[in-house]
Each structure stands twice: as structure tokens, then as C-alpha cells.
Amino acid sequence: MNPILSIQNVSKQYETTLAVNDVSLDIPEKSIFGLLGPNGAGKTTLIRMITTILYQDSGTITLHNIPPKVDRSRYIGYMPEERGLYKKMKVGEHLIYLAQLKGANKATAKQRTQYWLEKLAIQQWEKRPIEELSKGMQQKIQFIAAVIHEPSLIILDEPFSGLDPINANLIQDEIFELRQKGATIIFSTHRMEQVELICEHIALVNKGKIVLQGTVKAIQQAYKKHHFLVNFAGETTLQQQADLFEVISQHDQQATIALLNNAKISDVLQHLLSAGVDMTGFREILPSINQIFIERVAQTA
Question: pTM score, two decimals?
Fold first, then answer.
């Protein structure tokens, strides 16, 4: 898949702190890409360099669908974790203003503002000041502000913060729809369950460096421990079998086993059936992104 954004050998230092250290990363076009890392890992600095809020000390950042020497920030939508809204401005006026800053004429800015207010069912707030909105409502306005100019690259930093489950699902659906329409989304969050649900590719940053990257499925496969969940009917107690599997835990008609010595799944299944186990389910347990995140950060501490 072709990259829309290429980051090559990028570094950024603040006095004695090397915040980003020789990072190279390609963001595939029309993907939802998770940018992960613990606090202070360098994610925010990297995002600010992508959006040209900051400039790198070395290396290159290229957005591939814009001409050379054109300001790439006009082609990027950025939703920061810290809200950047003018609290005294009215919602509609604010969104029109922000759309115009990104290059839309006034008529187009008005049309897109109405479209998004209706799409997110908040048109009744159009003439209210930002400061009168709840935290969750301001988050929805911040989301609109990031996408109203129809950018090809959208960066969302903790987009579900402050949202109830209904509105979180609403924004999630909009993210999928934007990708389907051709946008690329960089998604930064500490909530790993959302990463597994939303992202296709991820990169883990720690201490200013990329320590893990790839597709979610490939990374889970690389870190799997050959554990399997066995479900069964009736009163059954599984016993460890030398050279086949070890029983890790067992309760409520299910057991977790670990294959030993590269045992074949077919041999394990044959043994369980021969032992009279009335199996109702058998599946591999893949590690969660949260488990992998904790393990990889500990390895690079």
C-alpha cells in the first residue's frame, strides 16, 4: 500500500532532552494508523512536527499528495488532546472561521458547518458560545473543526475523551466513514481496546524511538504464546500431557492450555477427543495490544 506520509530519520531535541530520535515511519494511504506510546514517549512532538507546529532538527517529513513547497498543514486536520477552541465564540461562527482559515470560502464554510452540525445532531447549539457546552459537546465541535476542510490526513489525539458511549460510537462511525471516503487517519490514544477495534496499522514510540510497528494482526501473531482456550460440556478435568500441552487454568467448563515443544494442534485435538473430552469450542488466544504494549515498553525501559 502506498504511503501518504513519509517520515524519514526525523529528530527533535529540547535543550538536553532528545524527544524524537531518528524516527522513520510510513503511514499507508487510506488507513487508520495507531500512534501509541507511554506519557513522555515523543508522540506529541512527532505529531506537532507532522502538522508543522514544530520543525524537526533533522530528517524529512513528506505528505505525498501535495505539490513541493506548499504548506502541508492546509491538507491536515488536527484534533489535539487539549482543546483549542475560543470559548467566547459561538459554535457556528467558530466553525466557519476555522474552515476559512484552512482555505474554504465563506459559502463553502457555512455549508460544511451546517452539514456537520446536522450529522452529529448538535445544530441546536449553533448560536451558543463554546463555553456553555459540556466537555463531551466541545469534543464533538473539536472533531468537526479537524475535518471540516476535508483534509486528506486527519490526526486525532484522544478523540473519545469526555464522550459517553453513544457519542463515542457516533464519532467512531464517522472515523470509519472518513476513511472509506479516502482520508487517512492517525489515531493516538492510551485506550488499547480502541486500537484493536479501530486501527489496521500501529507504531509504538518509547523514549523517542519507534520500538514496534506493523499491522495489528501481524503484531499479535508475532507476540502470541501458543495458548488455546478449550470449552467443554459436562464435568471434565484436563490433565497436562507431556510433549503436547500444559494446563494453565481451568474453571467453569473451560480451560486455558499452552502447547509444548511446538506440538501440532491436530495432535492436541486428537488427544482430547480420544480422552473423551466433549469439546464445544477450541480457539487460539492472541495477546491484546495492551499486553503487547506493556511488554514492549518494559523491554525498552
Answer: 0.88
